[in-house]
């Protein structure tokens, strides 16, 4: 009796395993699956006329209702949709910016799966999600793309307010995404640095400034300003040599705007807002030209 029960259990287990295997095979035959999502991580603004985001997928025997959708930043509304046998559509922030004639494949069930975005700008930086679905199945994948812009004006200024102190000011305009500025010497990163970042017409202006005592500095002293855009894996730096005493030096001839900025930061009791406004003036003037 015991042997019969064990045999029945073994037969039942084998039957379940066989049914599960058949069900898995059936699903694979009808499944749609994204095998590769091609989204450039970083592109530089103005370097290329267009960028291609591709969504490579496989499909099974049942392709009824096959639809490819692309979403930007969230899945609330698609920015691109292609229903097989119909013309692709661009929507939202990508309306009028996608080459709808572009074909990623000669396969009629894959030809309009990709996005060819013309003249990519910084406003299309973010997460892109491709969703491929049929009436039976759906698959999705997400990747981030950053359109970055290097700084247009990067300067390191020294300004003495009296014989005992110096103001070190680093400023940059026209970058995207938001840059980080750090002030340092070859030995250490400087403490007590004031930072400010402003967004103007889709580009960032940033400033870092610190006031130092001559008595705390070697002669000569070296200052280093580093600008980093972490999302773009981008970094540049400027260096300046300073000699403590009644006369200061700067590595480059300052502009009138630089002198105004230095005076605003260096004057005793100066309003930080005044300094910030002067940082933004070059970027504002450039945008109006």
Overview of this protein structure:
- By secondary structure, the protein is α+β, with helices and mostly antiparallel strands.
- It is 20% helix and 39% strand.
- It has three helices and 16 strands.
- The strands form four sheets. A six-stranded mixed sheet has the order 2-9-8-4-5-6, with no helix packed on it. A four-stranded antiparallel sheet has the order 10-11-14-13.
- A hairpin with a 2-residue loop joins β13 (194-200) and β14.
- α2 (256-266) runs antiparallel to α3 (272-288).
- The longest helix is centred in the first third of the chain and has 29 residues, at 2-30.
- The chain is rod-shaped, with a radius of gyration of 30 Å.
Computed over alpha carbons, the radius of gyration is 30 Å
Strand arrangement in the largest pleated sheet: 2-9-8-4-5-6
According to DSSP, the number of beta strands is: 16
Assign the structural class, choosing from mainly alpha, mainly beta, alpha/beta, alpha+beta, or little secondary structure. alpha+beta
Strand content: 35-45%
Mean pLDDT: 83
Distance between the termini: 96 Å
Counting H and I runs of at least 4 residues, what is the number of helices? 3
Shape: rod-shaped
The main β sheet shows up as:
6 strands, mixed
> Helix coverage percent of residues?
10-25%
């Amino acid at each position: 009796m015991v042997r019969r029960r064990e045999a029945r259990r073994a037969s039942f287990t084998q039957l379940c395993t066989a049914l599960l295997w058949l069900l898995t095979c059936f699903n694979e035959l009808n499944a749609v699956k994204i095998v590769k999502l091609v989204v450039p991580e970083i592109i530089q603004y103005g370097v290329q006329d267009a960028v291609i985001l591709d969504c490579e997928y496989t499909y099974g025997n049942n392709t009824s209702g096959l639809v490819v959708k692309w979403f930007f930043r969230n899945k609330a509304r698609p920015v691109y949709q292609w229903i097989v046998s119909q013309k692709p559509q661009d929507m939202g922030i990508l309306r009028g910016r996608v080459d709808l004639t572009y074909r990623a494949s000669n396969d009629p069930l894959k030809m309009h799966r990709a996005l060819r975005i013309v003249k990519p700008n910084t406003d299309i930086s973010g997460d892109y999600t491709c969703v491929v679905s049929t009436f039976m199945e759906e698959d999705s994948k997400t990747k981030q793309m950053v359109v970055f812009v290097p700084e247009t004006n990067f300067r390191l200024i020294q300004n003495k307010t009296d014989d005992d102190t110096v103001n070190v000011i680093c400023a940059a305009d026209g970058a995207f995404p938001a840059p980080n500025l750090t002030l340092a010497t070859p030995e250490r990163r400087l403490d007590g640095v004031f930072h400010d970042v402003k967004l103007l017409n889709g580009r960032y202006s940033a400033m870092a400034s610190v006031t130092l005592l001559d008595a705390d500095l070697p002669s000569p002293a070296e200052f280093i300003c580093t600008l980093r855009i972490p999302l773009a894996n981008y970094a540049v730096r400027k260096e300046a040599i300073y000699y403590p005493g009644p006369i200061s030096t700067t590595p480059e001839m300052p502009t009138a705007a630089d002198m105004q900025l230095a005076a605003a930061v260096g004057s005793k009791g100066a309003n930080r807002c005044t300094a910030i406004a002067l940082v933004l003036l070059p970027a504002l003037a450039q945008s109006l030209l």
